[in-house]
Amino acid sequence: MCYVISIGCLYVPLSQNLAFPPNLKNLTLSGCRVSSRNMFLVGNLPNLEVLKLKEVAFEDNAWKTEGKFSQLKLLQVEASDLEIWEAEAAHFSSLQYLCLRGCSYLKCTPLELEKFRLFSISYCMDVQSLL
User: What is the CATH number of the domain that holds 92?
Assistant: First the structure.
């Protein structure tokens, strides 16, 4: 099952009471503002394998990863205002592909990059700080 949430106006807050089907495998969030609560709910979807965050604004420009993302294989963050990303490798135990595009404010990534099959960075201010 695939779910796409796209808001016409950029950075409209996503509802705090948003419920996703538990069998959801593919989720794209686009043009919205997400809170820690939103990302916690997404992270606890038991079957989520693909998560794409396109033009998503993070609360306080930060993502302190909570939730397990236990089945997530692909994570794409594109054109985001994300500056700080806190996570442990245990949050993304099944992650194989990580793609960061247009994340020019991101200061560093917390993950051990060498474990991913594919890692892509483009349009970042200081690529060296991400490696």
Answer: 3.80.10
